[in-house]
Write a structure and sequence with these properties.
Blueprint (H helix, E strand, L loop, with lengths): L2 H12 L2 H19 L4 H15 L4 H26 L8 H12 L3 H31 L7 H18 L4 H15 L2 E2 L6 E2 L13 H20 L18 H22 L6 H19 L11 H17 L1 H7 L5 H12 L8 H4 L1 H22 L3 H6 L8 H17 L2 H19 L5 H23 L11 H26 L13
Antiparallel strand pairs: 1-2
Helix pairs in contact: 1-16, 2-4, 2-16, 3-4, 3-9, 3-14, 3-18, 4-5, 4-6, 4-12, 4-14, 4-16, 5-6, 5-12, 6-10, 6-12, 6-13, 6-16, 7-8, 7-20, 7-21, 8-20, 9-18, 9-19, 10-11, 10-12, 11-12, 14-20, 18-19
Protein name: Putative tricarboxylic transport membrane protein
Pfam families: TctA
Keywords: Membrane, Transmembrane, Transmembrane helix
Length: 513
Amino acid sequence: MDTLGFLLTGFSVAATPLNLALAALGAVVGTMVGVLPGLGPVNAVAMLVPVVFALGLPPESSMILMASIYIGSEYGGRISAILINVPGEASAVMTALEGYPLSRQGKAGIALSLSAWTSFVGSMLATVGIVIAAPVLSRWALAFGPVEYVALMVFAFASLAGLLSDQPVKALLAVGIGLALSTVGIDPNSGVFRYTFDMPNLIDGIQFATIVIGLFAISELLLLYESHRAGIPTKVERMGRSLFNLAEMRLTNMATLRGSVIGFFIGLLPGAGGTVGSVLAYSTEKRIVERQDPAGARFGRGDLRGLASVEAANNSASNSNFIPMLTLGIPSSGTTAIMLGVLTLYNITPGPVLFTSQPELVWGLIASLFIGNVMLLAMNIPFVGLFARMLSVPAWTLVPFIVVVSAVGVYSGKSAGFDLVLMVVVGVIAWWLRKLSVPMAPLILGFVLGKILEQNLRRALSLSAGEVSILWSSWIAVVLWSAAALMLVMPMVFARLRRSSAPLAIDARLPQE
């Protein structure tokens, strides 16, 4: 079956009444999550993990729901950034640079509708790119054995350490903690109890839901309590004209296209995402516009081209992030790491074989991205005023809801009070690590991929009777080991280059009222 045939199969999966309803629900929840600063898609998806199992959802439906929340949060993050200068998501920081000045000028409606359109264009172009690029990369599946998988796992860890954190050592520490947690329980080969401390509840290992909710939801609640954020100060400017016109669309067409392309290729890098893509797109567009039209450039004061490039880039990157996740089993963020963890709970091995072993799941997810983006466009333009009213909701009102959902979700797994205690302990440790700027995405990645790494490492060493040199015996493994080393070295090289050369003068501070 060719790519078009697989895509049609995917649409037959995504267009079922259940999956359409889940995509619509995910789009609404994702937009609300994006609007409210501090919540984030990773917390929403983490709390959904036990729910999807309690409801008995099939794996493709679970993935569609979580992906819809993920991409919906990118749409929603721009609303608070434009209206009140408070980005709902990290990738929306650059949106505030141009969106908030437009709002102050009485053009909030134009900025919101245009950003929804450019987000849609960037997302759709990236999804088309997934259809073209993903099958090509998936053809490597047959070339991957235990040796290649070990190198691939190490490359995944190095990618997140090098790209998700300004301090790679802390990211590697987080990976190590995740790997250590993945070894708790019975050794699958020898049957020996490992790190159970004579606690029967740890014999089967630590629940994925317990780890994920503790790491993200509970630690976020502790940070919320610590900072005493009783609410989000809002002063929404008048909306003005609610829809952009054709002249404004023509003005931003090339900026949207350039931002989409930049975001797509940035999203292919494991560990990169919408934040990196939006920064590069904004700086690129600023250079081009100031060179071509120095008199008409209004960057930092409300330039529609800057807004369009940023929104297209961060949504394009967020969609193309699914390529390394689907083809290599390398998550690009905390949210996609949780999605990979959910696959392992369904006894599905993430990685290059996914396209051949689970084509309905993969192509159903890709098709749902097309459907979800259409839903988000149709929802975001007419109902943007409704979402804007959510900015007046005090953040503390979310606390009881998050606590109850988290506790019920974790308890439903084994019906054991021990898991609730462990969830709180993990949350307190995660809160402390986050205060030390230790990233959580590499930790959850180490926990998710730890068992896969251990199994393939043992298989590889059994084939060579314990000879370690087998780990770099194939050209694919050599390439992946080299790429992993490069990912770890790059941050140090770039830091030295920044110190030795004058940086580009871009004022990345958010405009103040």
